[in-house]
Amino acid sequence: MKITLFTSNQSRHNYLINKLSEIADELFVVQENDTRFPGITPGHYPASNIFEDYFKNVIEAEKKLFGENYIKCKNINIISLLEGDINKCKIDFFSSFLNSDIYIVTGSSYIKGDLAEFLIKKKAISIHMGLAPYYRGTDCNFWALYDDNPNLVGATIYLLSKGLDTGQILYHAISEIKINPFIYTMSCVKSAFDSIVERIKDNSIYKNSLIKQDQNKEIRYSKKIDFNENIIKQFFEKDIDLVTKPTDLSLYTNPFILKNKIN
Known about the structure:
This protein is of the alpha/beta class. The chain is 29% helix and 19% strand. It has helices spanning 11-23, 49-66, 113-121, 140-146, 181-201, 229-237, and strands at residues 2-7, 26-33, 76-82, 102-105, 125-128, 135-137, 155-159, 169-175, 220-222, 256-258.
């Protein structure tokens, strides 16, 4: 089996690359690179003391859940790009990476044009870090916690579509690990990554019925500009209760639940 992955370069993304390489005969990775020091070095997010404090917590949670991950070379082919460069490349640039059985998109830029059309036709799987249709856009799990909706923290695995986070849902991935807000949100990333590897391996990834998103259930559509210093300060000042709102399985589609333990 051949798999093509469009992703980023943080430790959690390298974890997914290594996990997929274990089940693929050959893995093709288009990896967009952003700074490994968010909040300190300007990149996808600005640099400031507030952003630095926030992302220190994110990075500590990432290390707890994923460790320090470096890409193994066995059966992995990589194209490395700067973040945002993917839409500057003609589709022919990726030609040797577009002969796979399964295509996955997570952590990459919003893919447009001919490449997007190709991936949609191939039923590419997109991993959205947020529970759609409730939360769409960017930084969705942050906003779910900010809105006092910890029961709507998770990941949505759906078919790639032209609209942002609008594809038909395959399933949701959630977590029982609720040590603190940062561990909780990062454990939902692990739930998404572990589940997609498991469901590709056992050939169940496409077997559930596709669920069309009900846009009437949308709570927030967040944009990058919304995630700013003032909002982060408010987030740190909040007393976030992770456990009072119970898990309601009726809110989720074919859920995969990461159990309350850290390997």
